[in-house]
Amino acid sequence: MRSRRLRFTEGNRVELFDTGREGLAAMLHAIEAATTRIHLETYILRSDEVGRHFLSALTERASAGVDVRVLYDSIGSRGLDATALEPLRRAGGEVLAFNPIVLPYPTFAPRRRDHRKILVVDGRLGFTGGLNIGVEYIAGIPGSETEEWRDAHVRLQGPVVRDLEAVFLESWFRADGPGLPWDALLGPEPAPAGDARCAVLPDGPVYRRRRMRDLIVSAVESARSEVLLESPYFAPGRRVLDALSRASERGVRIELLLAGHTDHPVLRRAARSIVPRLLHAGVRVYEYERAMMHAKLVVFDGHWGLLGTSNLDRQSFEHNFEVNLIVEGGSTPARIGDRILADIAGARAIDLASLAARGPVERFVDRLASLVLYFV
Q1: Which one of the listed residues 203, 294, 313, 366 is annotated catalytic?
Q2: CB proximity list for 123: less than 8 A, separation 6 or greater
Q3: Structural fold of domain 203-375
Q4: Is residue 280 among the annotated active site residues?
Q5: pTM (two decimals)
């Protein structure tokens, strides 16, 4: 994948985690081993068992003299017990809420949310992907076969970690965080640690273009043989739907895996209203029902992969601040493709007959959900 708008670095190591349990455990271990600084950015920060475990580890490191900065989204983290943050603050840690809505005077652009998930430890070890900080990523949701939250998160080593930390600092300053010496904080670029070529793609409503959407459209249009996509929420808008349909009609194999069990049923209904158009074009569509599927994964022609925080919906494309990782080389693109195909093998295929068998009321509700999402 080539683009003048992306900065690629060579010599990176990328490790992919498939569940919330293993990803959160790796993050917590990295925090506990920190020696100089910890930068954590998350959409959801809970004060439940998992959240308090993280806050306890952050507090211990801050007490030991490690610089700790935490940024969370005020809407994503609604319900957070503010008292749970006080020990960290007393230990010297800095904690900020992004774009709080203070009634009766809401902050400007309340739909602008910080949906990024970034952890950088000591400037050498980075994490990003779909995982937030909450017990549901381990306990799952009612009705699923397993407790494991099916997600995708990566641990990074190498030069790309510096670029990921720069995105955290951008978010920190946007949230009016205390002034920081940018060059001193970023430090030198980490030494090569692997064989992957990576680029970090930040996105958000303040950028001139909708970077993630445009990248998806361009990559689908350029695909020669295969596009595999996995996303829990699917309401991407006309440009992405057109690109997928055209690619399938010219012979590219397009496989799309969506969530069967979901924490946002309106989005699932909206997706079912959209899917028939793709099925008519030859796109294969599946729903993953064994557990809550929250991964955001794409692989193109088996050569390069994309993962991170962006869902394939208009909220992510137009309103959220997001961060995604592009990976070429090494074993990671094949690993992403194998992961998607394994999930598809355990999923249920959606076809036109099954969708047509829905009752008229259910079809009307699905259509209504898609219209609501289009106009909000």
Answers
A1: 294
A2: 36, 37, 161, 162, 165, 185, 186, 187, 190
A3: Endonuclease; Chain A (3.30.870)
A4: no
A5: 0.92
